[in-house]
Write a structure and sequence with these properties.
Elements lengths: L1 H23 L2 H19 L4 H29 L2 H32 L3 H21 L12 H12 L3 H31 L4 H25 L5 H24 L6 H28 L4 H19 L12 H26 L1
Helix pairs in contact: 1-2, 1-3, 1-6, 1-11, 2-3, 2-5, 3-11, 4-8, 4-10, 7-10, 7-11, 7-12, 8-10, 9-10, 9-12
């Protein structure tokens, strides 16, 4: 329940903080969200019972969303075109490595200390981020006088949903993230239960996939300077669909070795990183409103589609690869169809 409440906070926070940053600027909401994150991390370690823990975790997620949505918004303020794609490649590379390092660090902490030490660590990280942001991050978005404030920014965010091209492209990227969340949910069972990998062996495989995502995102940022975003997305989707077909084939005809499955998952997840890197740049070029609202919509929709896909991974038991294959293949097809719908919507 504490983890669920944190994820709900992360999703809702992106909708709230995005429009607020459009109305008030980026730096103030960023500093406030980091301060609340630091405080709630400390409160989690001091929670007297589980009900307080769940409440503090929700606030921790709500404030933590500020870093997610504002990192993208600040990037969109400072960069455009291939420069934005290059920066998003760096952001995707970091976001690919940290989910691997996080559980490792957390496991080491609870091995030698009590569980409260995890939240002391999060509190320390929040404090460092707050100090670095205060001294080194300048304001990148100065609201114009008479812009209508937060209520106007919220209204502009909902009007963005009427931008069919933006909406279809966001749905497409969200389907890709749905497949990726499916991989995250199913891979521990498929690799450890079906193929008998040890926790260490699974961690190594998980780490290899994360490193490949980071490397591919970095390479995509460089390629985007020479190849147009739409052409690059077509190539990314083609490789993603082939990888998903490979997983689906292996689901019905599973080999004795896990290596073929791992190779297909590496390609699919690498293309996920590439699609989010290029796709976010496309979204920022076609948005009608400001970057904060657009980043918030993108963030919450990818979270929502991922949450929708994850529960279906266990419907056929812990050893079946079929739900994962069906998930990756269907999400790939739907992502491609949604992207083409966005292209047609822009042509009208």
């Amino acid at each position: 329940m504490s983890l669920t409440s944190c994820f709900i906070g992360l999703a809702l926070g992106q909708i709230v903080i995005g429009p607020v940053s459009d109305a008030r600027g980026r730096r103030g909401p960023l500093l406030l969200s980091l301060a609340i994150f630091t405080l709630t991390s400390l409160l989690c370690s001091l929670a007297p019972d589980i009900n307080f823990m769940i409440a503090f975790r929700f606030l921790q997620g709500l404030s933590g969303a500020g870093g997610m949505v504002l990192a993208r918004s600040i990037a969109a303020d400072k960069f455009q075109g291939s420069a934005l794609t290059s920066f998003m490649a760096l952001l995707m590379a970091i976001n690919s490595v940290t989910p691997v390092l996080g559980p490792v660090v957390g496991s080491l902490i609870v091995t030698f200390f009590k569980w409260q030490a995890v939240f002391y660590m999060l509190c320390s990280i929040g404090l460092l981020l707050l100090l670095f942001s205060f001294f080194f991050i300048e304001e990148t978005h100065l609201p114009q006088p008479g812009n209508g404030g937060v209520s106007r920014a919220v209204a502009d965010m909902f009007r963005e949903l009427g931008n069919l091209k933006f909406l279809w492209f966001t749905v497409s990227l969200s389907f890709v993230m749905g497949g990726f969340f499916g991989y995250i949910s199913a891979s521990p069972f498929v690799l450890q239960v079906r193929y008998g990998l040890s926790p260490l062996g699974f961690s190594v495989c998980f780490g290899i996939v994360a490193v490949c995502i980071a490397l591919t995102a970095t390479l995509t940022g460089r390629i985007s300077r020479r190849v147009g975003e739409q052409q690059l997305m077509r190539r990314i989707f083609s490789l993603m669909l082939m990888a998903a077909l490979g997983v689906l084939f292996l689901a019905f005809f599973p080999p004795d070795s896990f290596i073929p499955l791992l190779l297909c998952l590496i390609v699919f997840c690498s293309m996920m990183g590439a699609s989010q890197t290029v796709g976010f740049t496309v979204l920022m070029e076609i948005k009608r409103g400001l970057a904060g609202a657009a980043s918030g919509i993108y963030g919450v929709m990818t979270f929502f589609f991922g949450a929708m896909a994850s529960p279906f991974m266990g419907v056929m038991g812990e050893q079946s690869i079929i739900p994962l294959g069906v998930c990756l293949f269907s999400c790939s097809l739907l992502a491609i169809a949604s992207w083409h719908a966005g292209i047609k919507a822009s042509a009208k």
